[in-house]
Amino acid sequence: MTGLDRSRAVDEATLRYLAWAFGRRPEVRQTSLFPSTKPERLVVTLDVEYYPEPVDGASLELRAYTNGDFHVSYHETRAGDRRRCRWDHHDQPHNARDHFHPLPDAGTDAAVDRNYATDLTRVIEGAVLPWVDDRVDALWESETG
């Protein structure tokens, strides 16, 4: 197996574990592991009941590879407006291996270098879920403030 082949091998065990873990969380409406339209991913649909009314959809999409690379995307829609951000751990020319692409469109030009744990489950616990919690809080504050 070449390095390129290894880098594209889906880490099924990690994604299966994360599907199980997300499935136990009350703010998760549904998990879809390796859906036919996105066969390398775990798609986590968040319950919009946790969001203020203008938000009509929120989800996470996770990709993990056996070489440790990963991509985690957050998607949010309201009134047809789609926003997204992304946590990445992979080699590329625009930033350090660990980096974050912020809202509203996860653009490469706005990417910020970060330092993530090497284990994706720890990245979910230490970076992604706290960010989602902060995002939901900020949305509620903007609605009531």
Describe this structure as you would to a colleague.
Helix content is 29%, strand content 30%. With 145 residues, the protein is α+β, with helices and mostly antiparallel strands. The chain has one domain. Strands 1-2-3-4-5-6-7 form a seven-stranded antiparallel sheet, covered by helices on one side. The chain is globular. The N terminus is likely disordered.
Radius of gyration: 15 Å
- Mean of all residue-level pLDDT scores: 92
Q: How many beta-strand elements?
A: 7
Q: How many strands, which pairing sense, and closed or not: the largest β-sheet?
A: 7 strands, antiparallel
Give the strand order of the largest sheet, numbering strands 1, 2, ... along the chain. Answer: 1-2-3-4-5-6-7
Summed up, the domain count is: 1
The coarse overall form would be globular
Strand content: 25-35%
- Uncertain segments are 1-6
Structural class call reads: alpha+beta
Distance between the termini: 56 Å
Q: N-to-C SSE series?
A: HHEEEEEEEH
Number of separate helices: 3
